Amino acid sequence: MYLDQLIGPEGLLMQFVQPEYADLDIKKVAVASVYNLCLRDSEGQTISDEHLRKVYTILMAVLQTPKPEQVDDILFAKLILSTLQGMRNILSVITDINPGSLGSLLAVCRVYMLYGLPGQTLQVPATLYPTPVSQYDPSPKRSTTKDSDKEESPAQSTPRGRKVKKKRQRKQQTEQDTARPDVRPAQNPPSRSPVGRAPVSTPPRSPLKAHDRHRRERGDSAGGYSSSDGSDYRSNWRGMASSSESEYSDNEAGHLTRLRSILSRVREVALNCLHNTAQMTDKRLMFGYWSHLLPECSSVGAPQTPTLFTSILKDPAPKARGNALLVLSSLVDGSKQYLAAAEETAPKQTAFTPYSVTLGSTVKEIHRCLLLALAAESNVHTLFYLLKCFATLIVNVPYHRLQPGLLTKVVRQIRPLLSHKEYDIQVAALTCFHSILSVQAPLQEVTQVMKTVSSAPQAQAKVPQALSATPSSQHRTEPQQGTKPQKPEEHRGTLQESMEKMNINSSSETTAQDSTIEKGSSSESTKEEGNKEKTQSESEGVAKVWLLDWCLRMVSLRHAQVTGSTLPIIPVRTEAIQVMTQMAKGYFPFIRPHLVELSHVFSGILQEQNTALQLQGGKFVEEVGAVLVKEVESPAPESLTDREAADFWLPLLSGPLPSALQNLDHTLLRSCGCQCLANTGPQVFQLLPTDKHILCITLLLGLTNDEEWSVRGAAIHALGVYVLYPCLKEDISFLADVAQACTLGLEEKNLSCRWKAAWSLGNLSNTIVSNREELGADFTDNFSDVLLQSLFNLALKSAADHDKVKSNAVRTLGNLVRFLRPEAFDKINFRQYVEQTAQVLTKCVKTGMAKVRWNACYAVGNMFNNPALPLGVAPWAPSLYSALQEAIKDCKNFKVRINATLALTVPALREHFGSQEQFSELWGCLADTLVGTERVEDFSEFKYRDTLREQLCGSLVHLTGLACREDLPSLHFHLQGKGELLHSYLTRYRESLEQKSTTEATKKVDELVGAQDHIQQLAGQGMADKEATICQNLSTIFAATSS
């Protein structure tokens, strides 16, 4: 094949890509030819994996080849750029990377992503290792020799003992920084190469010209990135090419400009390669290389190995900074399980630093560097990527294990961006706030920072200072109070102005949108009105939440009409609604004082023309409804009242929500409307007027015949909720309508719709059983046998469906058998239904997924609750008991075991358990399983072991209390060798019950005492010696529990 002729061992192109080949122009073209072989054809096919690996090896060899001596910088940069582009193409077509070659690929990407930046060396290590502690750092310690002291800045070379002089120098340095904010500290100690190579004692060779290197050494630091102004490198670099400062000819300046352009492209493509690598590599494997790409501790005042933040903070190319942010987002995305161990503790001088503390330090440093970048970034596209990176990071960090303060700094710095002139930035900022409200909610820190901040002028001056995580840094240039922000460039002024706007009390910001506020736009009347509202709010004791107020102004049509302002674009409004939805979910106290206002606002949103806004408004109503149900049912003294929740629903049900449910052009909106109606809650629904009851039921029943299956499924699901409401469950006509809707739903082709119909059918069966127990004959006599047979047919048919449908079908079958009246067993058709139900449950108890088996065992217990069931003589009973015995003894899922054991406590008479052999087998199974609970094979089931033991003891006590004289010999056989263990388990069972003061615990104690008395009664019936010995053994076990 031609591929072997081109890139085979003796291939035509191989001679031109060898490291020793000198002509870089030809080598560049050969590299381009090699990687073009990997492009997909018109059908999307590529060359074989073997040839892809060959091309990968060729490109890696070129990238790892050092720069030859006396080679033009531009020519070499073009070669590297072409090779990296080829590597990017390779990474886009291969499916995975060999873990053995991952370290070398990351090493190449890490070097070239910084190629051409000031202070960075072009030394490609052979590989990187995923262990952060295996590398030795040979860089010399600071202040150890006279030479190094001469090279350090005065602030760095001060001896430790001369603290007074050091403070003076810090003060002088601060004054100089204030006067000249763009001046950087003196040159740092010699930078060390990556992965613990030998220290570089001379300034590293850079592709830039000599005069640029000298300027960089005078004004830039080579190691850390501790300045609060992360764009100094960018502005200095841009300034170096200015015509007023250049000491060289136009040709040399043009050459330098071309070089910088190519180097920026090299860094961009290298970061693209790194991004592709991070996306296709397993998160667990990639996490091991974090120490090479991210800082582990603060870099303030000390040189540090270059990381991604070197590019984010210092690269003058906006595309390169954006690509670096994409890499960082890819790294932290999905890392929640790995960052969960991070913690932050008070600093201690110990010989060992726990890994969790190191991880916490890394997380904190990531926040600090991103905040620095956010303060300095002026490019809109890069700022967008930066905010997206923040949003991804926030949802993966365990803030509850870290010291408070990180989120406060993030909120304070992102808040001014809500008034940014670009709507994309506003959307990205709202995304960050959505992440903040969703992480480990509710957090006390978030609760505090979301409340109204002081409008005093001093508050604004302190905000930029909060951007730095380490106040001890003497190299940063902090903006002083009253000092006009300096370049770079206009963004700093815009940022400070935005902070001043946003830090005004939110109660006085109701005159216009934040995005259109200008200095001096607040009139005296507006101020007086705002102060009046503030006083009223404080008198009512309601803490205003500035983010909620801002979002309401963005989405409220009425506010725009009153103030004469224009509403923002749709993406901003929809994102603001999503933020409020998350706020309602995690921080309900924020929105509770404004429920009536929110109801009116979202009534207007549901009536708008834009379907995206309507859908987000419907999701907000759905989420608030779900939270209101929990709040109303909460036993807390300050929980929401039924009337407060009803006041939220009345405006919505008076037109907007019914209109949304009848919007034939928007399927998702109709489905969402059904979910909204399902979340009204039983207490609130009962308080609604009768016409609203009729409206809700009529709408839902009508939507069960909708053209879209998703709407039909949502309507059936809502009806399944309504059948449990006390004010509706006694209405037989309504129950019949729900049964008809379930019948239609179970005939759907879509699995989700059938699952929802089966779930609603299970709720319907729960309701009729509840009505039978509460209302008795008044309900059962009026319940049609035809309807009952229809329900049996539906459930039996569904029991042969998918496991999701089957798990609810078996629940329905158990309830229906429990509902049967005694005279129903005289009818052959119902006897057949009972026999078919027993056969289905027997099969489902033995096999199937855990949820099906769990529900099947629960259904068997419901069956046994019908006293008219002929358990002792039914032909299907032995197989059903055998299935329960098998589940108790062999099932790996402890929840299935618990429910199977619980089912054996339901039969109240000895004859219900059948023959002596069957009874003794069940008793022995319980005893053997109780003894065997010491062995837990699956650790995930360990948390259910105590519950299983308690239920086994209860069932064992129940069966022992029903045992007759004829059962004793069989029980003695199963008791051999287990007496002491059963004695210990029953003793602990008795002690645990006595520690509880519930009615159920008291009942179980009485049952245990009753079992002991029953054994003593059997012993007093003139038994033979063998039977008396058995009774004595049993009595000894149970007597020990009563002592």
Summing up helix and strand content along with how strands pair, one would put the structural category as: mainly alpha
The whole-number mean of residue pLDDT values reads: 77
Overall outline: globular
Low-confidence stretches: 133-249, 453-541
Question: Could you estimate the helical fraction of the residues in percent?
Answer: 55-70%
SS element count, helices: 51
Q: How would a textbook summarize the main sheet?
A: none
Q: What's the β-strand tally? A: 0
Cα-based radius of gyration, to the nearest Å: 37 Å
Give short descriptive properties of this protein:
1043 residues, mainly alpha, globular
Walk me through what this model shows.
There is one protein chain. By secondary structure, this protein is mainly α. Helix content is about 65%, strand content about 0%. The chain has 51 helices and no strands. Helix 15 packs parallel to helix 18, helix 33 packs parallel to helix 36 and helix 38 (about 750-775) runs parallel beside helix 41 (about 805-820). The longest helix has about 30 residues, at about 250-280. It is globular. Residues about 135-250 and about 455-540 have low confidence and may be disordered.
